[in-house]
Specification:
single chain; about 290 residues; mainly alpha; Helix Hairpins; 7 helices; elongated
């Protein structure tokens, strides 16, 4: 992995190469050398230990199984390490190739970008030229449209003045019609109120006539109302009054119709008036009898 990293630095773009350390190449060589020496030393030590283990296994058979297991483990680990080294080398080669391809593509992109910038500049110049031509044509069109707009504005102002004049005339006519309608409405309302007042006065006159008609039977002489003789005594008058007033008292006629209650009230008023007249006559009659 370290070798891959250092090789990738060597093929990095100029923008990224300026951040690499100055001693990257020397330090990479030194690390690879130390790595190889360390690997050789470990392998030599492992071979010596393996030979010593074989000697112990030959002397004592109990060490034979552990020796075989250790050798198998070392074989597996060595195979894995060798595979990992090969994978790292392939990745380094692939990364180097990709770096070269990226550099080539970057150069092609830069060249295409330069061509595109030049074409864009040409198009921009053509566009500016067209815009200037369009602007001159637009100015001419704008002047023409401005003249037309001024003419249309004058015509619209004239039409607006005529419309306002017509609206003012219509408003005056509508106001006059509204005043006439209100006057007619007020006249009708006054006529209705007058008719209503006449109807109410007529109804009041009818009620008074009915009231007088209903009260007529009870407005005769007091002795006829009380049902006694004109020469009856005071005690007889009081007895007859109490008897008749009980018959038409409102407390005893609570369940009757309103018309009957009204008639009973009128009869009670007539009885009270007749009783008052009788008592007044009797008071006047005593002094006359005493004088005789």
């Amino acid at each position: 992995m370290q070798v891959n990293h250092q090789q990738c630095w060597s093929f990095a773009p100029s923008g990224a190469r300026q951040y690499a350390p100055e001693t990257s190449t020397k330090s990479g060589v030194l690390r690879r050398t130390l790595r190889r020496l360390g690997g050789q030393t470990i392998v030599s030590a492992f071979v010596l230990i393996d030979i010593a283990g074989l000697g112990f296994a030959l002397v004592a058979s109990i060490w034979l199984a552990p020796w075989v297991a250790i050798n198998l483990t070392a074989l597996v680990l060595g195979s894995l390490s060798w595979s990992e080294d090969r994978r790292i080398q392939r990745e380094s080669t692939t990364a180097i190739r990709r770096q070269g391809e990226e550099l080539q593509r970057e150069a092609e992109r830069q060249q295409q970008a330069r061509y595109l910038r030049e074409a864009e500049e040409l198009r921009e110049a053509e566009r500016r030229q067209r815009e200037e031509e369009d602007e001159r044509a637009a100015q001419k069109s704008l002047q023409t449209a401005l003249r037309q707009a001024q003419e249309q504005l004058r015509e619209a102002e004239q039409r607006r003045y005529q419309v306002e004049k017509e609206r003012e005339t219509q408003r005056q006519q509508s106001e006059q019609a509204e005043r006439l309608r209100q006057a007619e409405q007020q006249r009708r309302e006054a006529e209705q109120r007058r008719r209503q007042a006449e109807k109410e006065r007529e109804a009041q006159r009818n009620r008074r006539r009915e009231h007088n008609r209903a009260a007529t039977p009870f407005q005769s002489d007091w002795w006829i109302v009380l049902g006694v003789a004109p020469s009856a005594s005071k005690d007889e008058i009081v007895r007859k009054y109490r008897h008749k007033i009980k018959q038409c008292h409102p407390d005893r006629l609570g369940g009757l119709a309103p018309e009957l209650l009204h008639l009973a009230e009128e009869q009670a008023k007539a009885l009270n008036g007749a009783y008052a007249n009788a008592m007044r006559v009797r008071r006047y009659a005593r002094p006359n009898c005493a004088a005789a």
